[in-house]
């Protein structure tokens, strides 16, 4: 082969465009790692969103129960104590309402009303407690 033929074959090889196998594998690995990070972040974001949603619903349920009790006749408040549940919260939830005289049992014109809402969340139980005082009008 003549020297000019060797030069022209080198020039022909250097003009070829493309990626080597190593470059393709490196790009694939980087894209896989990036995609995995997006998937993990999406799952975590969905979990936090669900917790936030249940927390908002739990607060609304507790606040509604407090408002419901405040609008009732004062003498009927002690009959409202007990445990219920709400379909807006996850299964296994409970709404515990307690009504007691405040500050002592001798006082009959003031009640302490406590509403405790609990529901299962993750590996534990989430609890929200609202309390208020209701006076005889």
Descriptive account of the structure:
It is a single chain. This protein is an alpha+beta fold and 137 residues long. The protein has 2 helices and 4 strands. The protein has a 4-stranded antiparallel β-sheet with strand order 1-2-3-4, covered by helices on one side. The mean pLDDT is 88. It has helices at residues 3-15, 21-70; strands at residues 82-84, 94-101, 110-121, 124-135. A hairpin with an 8-residue loop joins strand 2 and strand 3. Helices cover 46% and strands 26% of the residues. The termini are far apart. It has one domain (16-135).
Largest sheet: 4 strands, antiparallel
Q: In total, how many beta strands? A: 4
Secondary-structure element sequence? HHEEEE
The helix-and-strand class reads alpha+beta
Radius of gyration: 34 Å
The stretches of 5 or more residues where confidence is low (pLDDT under 50) are none
Proportion of residues in β-strands: 25-35%
Q: List the strand order in the largest sheet.
A: 1-2-3-4
Distance between the termini: 113 Å
Number of DSSP helical runs: 2
- What general outline do the C-alpha atoms trace? rod-shaped
Question: Into how many domains do the coordinates divide?
Answer: 1
User: What helical percentage do the residues reach?
Assistant: 40-55%
Arithmetic mean pLDDT = 88
